[in-house]
Amino acid sequence: MKKKYWKQNLIYLRILLTVWFICSFGFGILMAEYLNNFYLGGFPLGFWFAQQGSIYIFVILIFIYVYLMNKLDEKYNLKE
Amino acid sequence: MDSQFWTYLLVGITFTIYIGIAIWSRAQSTKEFYIAGAGINPVINGMATAADWMSAASFLSMAGLISVLGYGGSQYLMGWTGGYVLLALCLAPYLRKFGKFTVPDFIGERYYSSNARFIALICAIFISFTYVVGQMKGVGVAFSRFLEIPFENGVIIGIGIVFFYAVLGGMKGITYTQVAQYCVLIFAFTVPAIYISLQATGNPIPQVGFGSKTMDGVYLLEKLNQLSVDLGFEKYTDINRTTLINVFFITSALMFGTAGLPHVIVRFFTVPKVRDARISAGWALLFISILYTTAPAVAAFAKVNLINTVSNARYADVPDWFKNWENTGLLQFDDKNQDGVIQYVADSQINELTVDPDIMVLANPEIANLPAWVVGLIVAGGLAAALSTAAGLLLVISTSISHDLLKKNLNPKISEKGELWAARIAIAVAVVAAGLAGLNPPGFVAEVVALAFGLAASSFFPAIILGIFDKRMNKEGAISGMIVGILFTAIYIFYFKPQLGGPGTPDNYLFGISPEGIGTIGMFINFIIAIIVSRFTKPTPERIKQLVENIRYPK
Questions:
Q1: What NCBIfam families does the entry give (chain A) (predicted)?
Q2: Does B495 score more than 90 pLDDT?
Q3: Contact assignment for B78 to A61 by CB distance below 8 Å
Q4: Region B64-72: what's the mean pLDDT?
């Protein structure tokens, strides 16, 4: 039973950390030059990801994780 | 009323508040002194973490660096925020479940070895001390530039304030003062930003104004790109391919370093439950992101304002603030061609103006003609940022000595009361030592502060992650990983930093990685060494496997 909880936790981590990597190192750095061909208002898109977007996504990722884990704690009756 | 008056008034009021909080929240036990009794509300802890985290460098220097580097400044923005995702997902909940007082505590118990604990406490003290000296220096600078108090007296006033509330209140006093300091610093940072965003674009939200059109109908960033090109600089938003690899490695060293800094990790010991530790990291990053998304906007606005004001202006006509900042040495004008006009261009043969990046935040209110009280606010905010970070770091140093060294290594029979006194004495000594070092800073302090991240990334981060996620990781693996990782990183840094007397030149960088980014490689070396060594040495004892199993579940 507990093993499943841990496995599910690791799946969440993998997905969320992949998004974390793609949005910062991917969109913000490695792909930024290409993305700068597109615009978001006055922002070249790669520049926007590097100086604004990645930070918003980081915040959202943590709150998604908190939501998922609180549900998981309840499902496996591990809520303190 | 002039800005001097407002600065005295606002600094006086904020300092009185900090002292009041310290008296109100005295620590009665070691648990209160070390981790505020583990009774802090997660939102409050998020705010305290944000203040703990944002130092004088974040508040005073970061926006200026971004305005110089343009896109390249993104490494600080992503690097100093992305680590919180790692903290929330991979460290904070498990360390909270472990439920002890310090990071060396975790390393020592998880790796069943007082040697591991000792190495961890040396790393913790080394990282924290280099960092805190920079904060003390920041306090002295803020006082000396704005209040015309000599630098030394500024540092001494700073020591006095931190001494008072850290010695009296420990973590409990520090937590509640940090909450007040967060409010002061975030208000001080955003108010001028809102003003200049309104002035330039008519939009009060700097994060949006930064991507909007200016009054003449051109997008602000487009205008900035154009101005930069006209003066011979690179376009502000352009990505420089030759430095991209460094941006990648520096960003990652700062992220992993953040997740390995003891004064940040220990904040998650102060909340009551595992679920509080998770959400608390979310609040912390939310509070931090307010400053971190405003800073790049300030950088862009300030740069446009600066270029518009000084470029090709007649020296005789420049505003008063220009001359004031010239007196501090942060602005330097050298009329090379004797035409009485300021040439501010990329070509160093022709360029006549040297701008210290710090000026972008410090002089911003004056450049944008903001009211005098905003200047006072900036000073109070800068002091709040420096003092809150200094206090958090000093606590790590004092707990490392009184708890990890004295109680766990030298004298396990020490009484609760004795340990509390030892903690107070240790923090008092640490405050004074940091202040003295700040008064008389070795030239390289500023350099070393940025490098503390590389050291944390290459030592603590892998040891903690493996301790949680890899049951087979044993003491042999973790200790050899930490030692090799931190030594590799430290040697590379010393070798390649001319400011530290190193003989290396950038041509010889490993894969072109600068010392600021080398922590990333040090971290990978640590991981690899630890895993290989652990697979060829004695397996972890059964009780340690139980311990790891235990911290993985909230209940």
A1: Na_symport_sm (TIGR03647)
A2: no
A3: no
A4: 90
CA distance B144 to B7: 12
At B258 the three-state DSSP class reads helix
| Chain B CA closest to residue A69 | B275
Higher pLDDT, B57 or B96: B96
* Tokens, residue B442: 């070795």
Distance CA B226, CA B234 (A): 10
Across chain B, mean pLDDT equals: 88
Residues from chain A that touch B238, judged by Cβ atoms under 8 A, are 36
Nearest chain A residue (CA) to B243: A29
The residue with tokens 């790796």 is B111
The predicted pLDDT at position B347 comes to 86
Q: Does B241 have pLDDT greater than 90?
A: no
- The pLDDT-based confidence of B518 (bands split at 50, 70, 90) is very high
CA closest to B275 among chain A residues: A70
CB contact, 8 Å: A5 with chain B? yes
Q: Are B467 and B120 in contact (CB under 8 A)?
A: no
Locus of tokens 């549900």: A71
SS (H, E, C) chain A: CHHHHHHHHHHHHHHHHHHHHHHHHHHHHHCHHHHCCCEECCEEHHHHHHHHHHHHHHHHHHHHHHHHHHHHHHHCCCCC
- Tally the C-alpha atoms within 13 A of residue B444's C-alpha that lie toward its C-beta: 13
Q: Please list every residue in chain A whose beta carbon sits closer than 8 Å to the beta carbon of residue B552.
A: 6, 9
Structure tokens at B150: 């000599």
Give the pLDDT of residue B443: 52
Contacts of A70 in chain B (CB under 8 A): 275
In the Cβ-directed half-sphere of B113, how many Cα atoms lie within 13 Å? 17
At B423, the pLDDT band (50, 70, 90 cuts) reads: confident
A60 to chain B, any CB pair closer than 8 A? The answer is no
Distance CA B183, CA B420 (A): 30
Chain B interface includes A40 (CB < 8 A): yes
Whether residue B247 lies within 8 A of chain A, CB to CB, comes out as yes
Integer Cα distance of A6 and A11 in angstroms: 9
Is there a contact between A79 and B285 if contact means CB atoms under 8 Å apart?
Answer: no
Q: Name B498's Cβ contacts closer than 8 Å, sequence gap at least 6.
A: none
Nearest one of B117, B143, B37 to B383, comparing CA atoms? B143
Of B81, B222, B275, nearest to A70 by CB-CB distance is B275
Predicted confidence (pLDDT) per residue in B361-398, tens digit: 888 888 778 888 888 888 889 888 888 898 899 888 88
With contacts defined as CB-CB under 8 Å, which chain B residues touch A61? Answer: 85
Q: Express each pLDDT in B202-223 by its tens digit.
A: 899 999 999 888 888 889 999 9
Task: Tell me the chain A residues in contact with residue B255 when contact means C-beta distances shorter than 8 Å.
Answer: 24
The amino acid at residue B168 is: L
DSSP symbols for B94-129: HHHHH--S-HHHHHHHHTT-HHHHHHHHHHHHHHHH
* Partners of B353 in the β-ladder: B333
pTM value is 0.93
